[in-house]
C-alpha cells in the first residue's frame, strides 16, 4: 500500500487536541479556538461571533466543535451565521477537527470554531 502525506499548502490543520488545548500546524493553542484562512485566534465561545461573521466572504462552511460531546448551538448564533451566507456544521470538537482537516486538504474554503474537550 502506498502512503502519501497530506499537503496543506499555507493552511493550518489541527494536528491534535486534548483537555484544554489544540495543536494547530504544530503550535499549541490553549482554550477554544477559531481557525480561518486569515489565521488562528482564541475564541470566547458562542457569544464571540464577530470574527466568525467577518469570515463570511472567505469561507463557505464553518465547522463548530461543541466540546467532547455534540450539542446544539444557540439558535441566534446559527441564524446570524447562516444569514451571513455561511454553511454551518455542528459536531463534537474531535469530529469537527477531523472533518475540517479533510476538507482543508481538498482545498475547500472552510473554517473551524472549536470548544476544548
Tell me about this structure:
This protein is globular. It has helices at 50-54, 75-83, 93-105, and strands at residues 14-18, 21-24, 27-30, 33-36, 39-42, 61-65, 87-91, 110-114. The strands form two sheets. It has a five-stranded mixed sheet with strand order 5-4-8-6-7, sandwiched between helices. Strands 1-2-3 form a three-stranded antiparallel sheet, covered by helices on one side. It has a single domain, classed as MTH938-like (Hypothetical Protein Mth938, Chain: A, 3-Layer(aba) Sandwich), CATH 3.40.1230. Strand 4 (33-36) and strand 5 form a beta hairpin. With 117 residues, the protein is an alpha/beta fold.
Topology at a glance:
Blueprint (H helix, E strand, L loop, with lengths): L13 E5 L2 E4 L2 E4 L2 E4 L2 E4 L7 H5 L6 E5 L9 H9 L3 E5 L1 H13 L4 E5 L3
Parallel strand pairs: 6-7, 6-8
Antiparallel strand pairs: 1-2, 2-3, 4-5, 4-8
Which key features would you list for this structure?
117 residues, alpha/beta, five-stranded mixed β-sheet, three-stranded antiparallel β-sheet, 8 strands
User: Helical element count?
Assistant: 3
Task: Choose one word for the global shape.
Answer: globular
Give the strand line-up of the largest sheet: 5-4-8-6-7
Topology as a string of helices (H) and strands (E): EEEEEHEHEHE
> What number of structural domains do the residues give?
1
Task: Count all strands and give the number.
Answer: 8
Strand content: 25-35%
For the report, how would you describe the main beta sheet?
5 strands, mixed
Helix content range: 10-25%
Rg over CA atoms:
13 Å
Q: Kindly state the mean pLDDT as a whole number?
A: 93
- The CATH topology name reads Hypothetical Protein Mth938, Chain: A
Amino acid at each position: 500500500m502506498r502512503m502519501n502525506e497530506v499537503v496543506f499548502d499555507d493552511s493550518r490543520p489541527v494536528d491534535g487536541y486534548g483537555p484544554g488545548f489544540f495543536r494547530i500546524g504544530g503550535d499549541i493553542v490553549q482554550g477554544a479556538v477559531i481557525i480561518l484562512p486569515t489565521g488562528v485566534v482564541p475564541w470566547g465561545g458562542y457569544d464571540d461571533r464577530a470574527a466568525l461573521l467577518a469570515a463570511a466572504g472567505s469561507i463557505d462552511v464553518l465547522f463548530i466543535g461543541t466540546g467532547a460531546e455534540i450539542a446544539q448551538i444557540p439558535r441566534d448564533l446559527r441564524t446570524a451565521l447562516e444569514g451571513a451566507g455561511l454553511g454551518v456544521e455542528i459536531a463534537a470538537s474531535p469530529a469537527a477537527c477531523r472533518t475540517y482537516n479533510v476538507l482543508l486538504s481538498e482545498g475547500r474554503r472552510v473554517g473551524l470554531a472549536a470548544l476544548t474537550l
